[in-house]
Write a structure and sequence with these properties.
Layout: H1 2-21, H2 25-38, H3 43-61, H4 69-75, H5 77-86, H6 89-94, H7 97-110, H8 114-123, H9 136-155, H10 163-202, H11 218-233, H12 237-248, H13 257-272, H14 310-328, H15 338-361, H16 365-375, H17 383-396, H18 399-412, H19 418-429, H20 434-450, H21 456-473, H22 477-497, H23 502-514, H24 518-531, H25 536-548, H26 552-565, H27 570-583, H28 586-608, H29 645-661, H30 671-690, H31 694-705, H32 712-724, H33 728-741, H34 746-758, H35 762-775, H36 780-792, H37 796-810
Helix pairs in contact: 1-2, 2-3, 3-5, 3-7, 5-7, 7-8, 7-9, 8-9, 9-10, 9-11, 10-11, 11-12, 12-13, 13-14, 13-15, 14-15, 15-16, 16-17, 17-18, 18-19, 19-20, 19-21, 20-21, 21-22, 21-23, 22-23, 23-24, 23-25, 24-25, 25-26, 25-27, 26-27, 27-28, 28-30, 30-31, 30-32, 31-32, 32-33, 32-34, 33-34, ...
InterPro entries: Endocytosis_PI4K-reg_protein, TPR-like_helical_dom_sf, TPR_rpt, TTC7_N
Function: Involved in endocytosis.
Family: Belongs to the YPP1 family.
Length: about 850
């Protein structure tokens, strides 16, 4: 009979161990009670098991966090009674006292009694435990004990009386968290292994293993994250690096998925903060992982990518994190998956935000854009990632696509004006769509009036920019005046709303200058400079205003001072070249133009031979050359500017045709850089023409033709060269071709009218010059040439009026037209 009782006890104990591993605590308590009844010798074991079962089942429902402390003090009284009963000398003989003390430490932590918890761990002699292979349940208990001891030390402020004691305590805390981290990872690996073995033994035909129903407990998750944080607090950055790597290179298992993702994000943040800096060392140089019973298994194998610098490791970690986040994404839009979908999205959004910081910092925007493209499939109606996607597309130069994405963001955030302003900026700056830009700006103003976010002044500014650009594009006098009036009104309103915004005053000054109010414009631009003294566009505008006021020497001083501040600004150097041509002659201007050519080589030549996408390249330039040459400063301005994109497309199409029927082939590389070079060559040609060196003019034109052979600017320059040689027929042909490509090119119309005059075709000359005057009535050269033509026709009164208009206009004409000042949004 005794043998049968013993057999029954063994069977019950085996059943208890199985249920402990499976965390089936209700069954454990029932079996422990049965064991106590059938085998009185197992009383202390049974007490321990009941106490353990009640503690764990309670904590599954009410995790050990601060908000549950008050509830735990009442809810865990029964569990504490049973565990205390097992934590004595008799419990030691039964072999359960050690585990009872460890679980009491956990119980006291849950109740907020941190000092008692530390005493329990001391009684268990936790610090003296030797490393040996442990059963699965014991492994978890020891892991949690080290984690909770570290947390209790963190919470308990007693006993710290000196700096030495504090350092000693911090070292002990870190040691606890480090051991807890390793044991946690090892426990999860062993759990996965057991689950896989169970799956194999069942012989099921299911293609997938059963889902792991174990969740990482809050204390273990906290320990994993707290270990590197402790090192950061102690300024041990190299050790932090090794700790993160040790945790993240452990063989992955299902249960650690969520915490691994969090660790990766924290590791990426740590690297992005630059704390390691010069002390960074490649993982290749990291200490090897020691073999130990309490260390998790780590990945090791051949053909692994080893980052050499911190930026490589940061992006590598974030790309792995992204792969995990995308894998965990919930695509179903069903209401029952809402919480899971939101949680997965938030994890992914954190990864993408960090990836944005990393890729933009190191010029890898194309990589970011690819990642965000993948994120769209689980970002339904989530405006944050859609906006990030739009911004990445803008950085890539894919403005049409970016605008489409932004329209979706505008639908998702119906009360936000910022997205409308961003869409307007793209229309103005890159897409030559001032009407669409104005519409977006008006939408932004409407939203801002209904749901204010402090951007009403900026909305009026953007509306004004839209009307300003529409006025430039208008062909008829009445609509042009209406648009100019609307632009001026909105700029004035923006200044009233935002008196300290330099951009508002900059655009008001520009609009006043364009409408001929030079003194008022000077005063407004001076106010803008007082608010932002180093803005290059405002300095550019001030230079032109001074030249319009016939203060060329002062204008030259301003632009030279501005170039000292922006030594790589081709735009400002271009203005200086024209002022030097006016004040000091062509030879001095040629020196500046040659410096521009040298500067282009330094800033852009390396880009033209690089395979890196243009948007991902970096240069030291602080102010981009906006390409407003004297030929480009009319209505068309520059082929890279928004309001001349149509002409540029015609030129490009013609050049492609030319390449198919001749030996010309477009240069490979970034077209923007080559267009900058084109304008520098054309400036040199213009200056060589001014100093009567036609051979050098021809060489410059040939260099420019290698870049963009059928540009109307090049054709115009060829016409000027033939005019210089008095080859009127050839000059007429080139000017006609330039006008055919871009009918709005005022400079070509002016010169074509003059050529007709020299050829005796006075009727054609008058018609052509009147057309130029319609496009730009403020150009004194057009009126002067028209006066000459009318005089030859015998219309002396009209000719005199035209000459008088030329004199009047010239008194307020800058060295380059005000339309040459670039759009500015910073």
């Amino acid at each position: 009979m005794t043998g049968r009782t013993k057999y029954t006890a063994v069977r019950i104990e085996t059943e208890i161990e199985k249920n402990r591993e499976e965390a089936n605590w209700a069954k454990v308590i029932d079996l422990a009670t049965s064991l106590k009844d059938k085998s009185p010798d197992c009383e202390f074991l049974a007490d321990f098991l009941v106490g353990e079962g009640r503690l764990e089942s309670y904590l599954e429902e009410w995790p050990p966090i601060e908000s549950n402390i008050h509830k735990a003090k009442l809810g865990l009284m029964d569990a504490r009674k049973y565990l205390n009963a097992a934590a004595n000398d008799m419990g030691k003989k039964a072999g359960v006292a050690l585990d009872a003390y460890l679980l009491l430490g956990k119980l006291y932590y849950a109740c907020g009694n941190y000092n008692e918890g530390l005493k329990s761990f001391k009684l268990a002699e936790l610090h003296t435990l030797s490393e040996k292979k442990l059963p699965l349940r014991s492994l978890k208990i020891v892991a949690e004990s080290y984690a909770i001891k570290g947390l209790c030390l963190q919470k308990d402020s007693s006993g710290v009386t000196s700096k030495y004691k504090k350092a000693e305590k911090e070292e002990e805390m870190y040691k606890c968290f480090e051991l807890a981290s390793d044991l946690t990872l090892l426990y999860m690996q062993e759990l996965d292994k057991q689950q896989s073995a169970t799956f194999t033994n069942t012989g099921t035909h299911s293609p997938q293993p059963p889902a792991v129903n174990k969740n990482l407990s809050p204390v273990l998750e906290q320990a994993l994250q707290q270990a590197p944080v402790m090192l950061i607090q102690q300024n041990k950055f190299v050790e932090t690096l090794d700790r993160y790597r040790a945790s993240l290179s452990a063989v992955e298992c299902q249960t650690t998925n969520v915490v691994r993702l969090k660790l990766m994000c924290q590791f990426a943040e740590f690297l992005l903060q630059g704390s390691v800096a010069e002390n960074y060392k490649s993982p290749l140089n990291s200490p090897p992982h020691p073999n130990s019973f309490w260390k998790p298994k780590h990945y090791n194998g051949i053909n692994q990518f080893i980052p050499k610098v911190d930026c490589e490791e940061t992006i590598l970690v974030l790309l792995v994190a992204e792969a995990m986040a995308v894998r965990n994404a919930v695509l179903s839009q069903s209401p029952e998956f809402k919480e899971a979908r939101l949680s997965a999205y938030q994890d992914a959004a954190s990864v993408y935000d960090l990836l944005t910081l990393a890729t933009v910092r190191w010029g890898q925007v194309s990589l970011l854009q690819e990642s965000l493209e993948r994120a769209m499939k689980f970002s339904f109606e989530e405006p944050h990632l859609w906006r990030q996607h739009a911004l990445s597309l803008i950085s890539m130069g894919r403005y049409e696509h970016a605008l489409v994405v932004l329209k979706e963001v505008i639908k998702l955030e119906q009360n936000s004006s910022v997205n409308c302003l961003l869409a307007a900026k793209i229309c103005y700056e890159h897409l030559n769509r001032p009407f669409d830009g104005t519409e977006f700006s008006l939408q932004a103003k409407t939203k801002e009036l209904a749901y204010s976010s402090g951007l009403l002044g900026r909305c009026h500014l953007y509306v004004g920019i839209g009307y300003h650009l529409q006025a430039r594009a208008a062909m008829l006098k009445q609509p042009k005046e209406e648009y100019n009036e609307k632009a001026l009104t909105n700029f004035q309103t923006s200044v009233e709303l935002e008196p300290n915004d330099h951009l508002c005053k900059y655009y008001l000054g520009l609009q006043l200058a364009l409408t001929g109010h030079i003194p008022e414009a000077l005063a407004t631009v001076s106010e803008a400079l007082a608010l932002q003294p180093e803005n290059s566009s405002t300095l550019h505008l001030l230079t032109l205003l001074l030249s319009a006021n016939r203060k060329h020497e002062e204008a030259l001083e301003v632009v030279e001072a501005a170039i000292e501040e922006y030594p790589d600004s081709l735009n400002l150097m271009y203005v200086r070249a024209h002022l030097e041509l006016h004040e000091e002659g062509g030879e001095r201007a040629l020196v500046t133009a040659k410096q521009m050519l040298e500067l282009w080589k330094n800033l852009y030549e390396g880009q033209t031979s690089s395979d890196i996408p243009e948007c991902d390249r970096k240069s030291d330039t602080r102010s981009v050359f906006q390409l407003y040459t004297s030929e480009m400063s009319d209505k068309d301005s520059s082929s890279l500017q928004a309001h001349s994109i149509a002409a540029s497309r015609v030129e490009q199409a013609l050049s492609e045709v030319a390449s198919s029927v001749s030996s010309f082939s477009p240069r490979p590389g970034p077209q923007r850089s080559y267009m900058l070079l084109l304008e520098v060559w054309l400036l040199l040609a213009e200056l060589y023409l001014a100093v009567d060196q036609p051979a050098d003019v021809l060489k410059c034109i040939q260099e420019a033709s290698q870049i963009f052979p059928l540009s109307h600017h090049i054709l115009h320059m060829r016409g000027l060269l033939h005019m210089h040689k008095q080859e009127w027929t050839d000059a007429k042909l080139f000017f006609q071709n330039a006008v055919a490509i871009n009918p709005q090119h005022v400079k070509s119309l002016q010169q074509l009218g003059l050529v007709y005059h020299y050829l005796g075709l006075q009727g054609l000359a008058e018609t052509t010059l009147r057309e130029a005057a319609k496009i730009d009535p403020s150009n004194h050269i057009t009126w002067y040439n028209l006066g000459k033509v009318l005089e030859s026709l015998g219309e002396f009164e009209t000719a005199s009026s035209s000459m008088a208009t030329a004199l009047t206009v010239e008194t307020t004409s800058p060295i380059l037209p005000f339309s040459s000042v670039p759009l500015c949004f910073d």
